[in-house]
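FAQ: What does a ligand-bound record look like?

Like this one, built around glutamic acid:
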Amino acid sequence: MSKERANPMTTTRFAPSPTGYIHIGNLRTALFNYLIARKAGGQFILRLDDTDPVRSKQEYVDGIKQDLEWLGLTWDRVERQSDRLERYKAAADELRAAGRLYECFETPIELDLKRKKLLNMGKPPIYDRGALNLSDAEKTALREERGAGHWRFKLDLQRIEWTDGILGDLSIDAASVSDPVLIRGDGQFLYTPASVCDDIDFGVTYVVRGSDHVTNTATQIQIIEALGGKVPDFAHHSLLTGPQGEALSKRLGTLALRDLRVSGLEPMAVLSMMARLGSSEPIELRTTMQELIDGFDLSKFGAAPTKFDVADLTPLTSKYVSGLSFEVMADELAALGVPADIAPAFWDVARDNIDVRGDVAQWWTLCRDGAEPLIDAEDAEFVAVAKTLLPAAPWTGESWGEWTKAVKAETGRKGRGLFMPLRKALTGMQHGPDMSRLMPLLGNVKL
Ligand code: GLU
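The answer part, i.e. the structure of the complex:
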């Protein structure tokens, strides 16, 4: 059964750690959760996983919000884990009282040695629960020697099963997983207990996140149950790779949403792609959020890694931009200084010749200032003749036709040999808008 039906109780969350700016991979998670909540008429929570006081920064909180706002992914509620430390402490006490949380004193080096030893024996590197055998006196001695210990959740060694919204029926043997550390020696709560408490308290019904969290999900299910919470539904989407299937992790730094924004990519282009990439349905440009919401179906996504090429966002952006009406662009064009009387005609000419909105400026510069003629040596004589036949300004929609006809009659040139040198002479460029429509807009022609 689809978990995305209309249901106002549906609650999802996007839970970035504000330790950096969010990138295209994070966006996938944010968008899926957003679309599910909106489709169901439920709630979308922005949760800031900021229990790490050293790495979490306000500038990243602000940056994450700006990026989501740019995309139009509005949240209904924002929560910060750093505000909820008392709640996590209470949950830890509850687990301790239930015998599910135990103190451990191994140093990172000791743990590493244990792991290596198991791996050398061809065994999975699972924590051996050595700390469970410590007597109270031993613990006191260790505490004196090493300071407070870290705390692990004692997994119930059974199979943990759930039906994943993307991966289908999953079953993980708890015996194949180390007891997760919930609290560090310095008292800092790690992501797991915080996330579990939040999911319980905020009534999260559906957790959608990357497949790197599958094992976390298994352990979180047990912790939620130990705390008496209701286990939400889960879905794990595949991770993005580069166009050749290469890991994207190293390049994600260059795929921050703010960089995509600065490069002029359009939110709807980015969202249209990410709402479909990796699913069995085609990527189609959508121009409104509602269309994206209506067309979203998580069950169409597969488990295979999803290839992502940032270059594919450019054609979608230019398609989106060329579809913008003059009314939408009017203010931007006025800000560029395009006079109101020619702005509609100018936009009509420019719209099909730009990748991003910002490109419109270069066409306006051309129309306002003119360009240095580009004349190849072998065309010099031809262009000199053409110049004498140039119709007098002001030019109209007919001027280009009249001019090229006259030049053709005089020189005998036709086709590309006729048109290209004339385009280059008027615009200084080899490519550009349809010349009959551009010519009336050209001022200060330097030919
Ligand atoms: N802060 C975690 C992350 O960014 C959240 C994972 C989750 O969705 O629970 O990986």
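Follow-up question: can I read anything off the structure? Yes, for example: The pocket of glutamic acid is lined by residues 15-17, 49, 191, 195, 209, 213 (CB under 6 Å).
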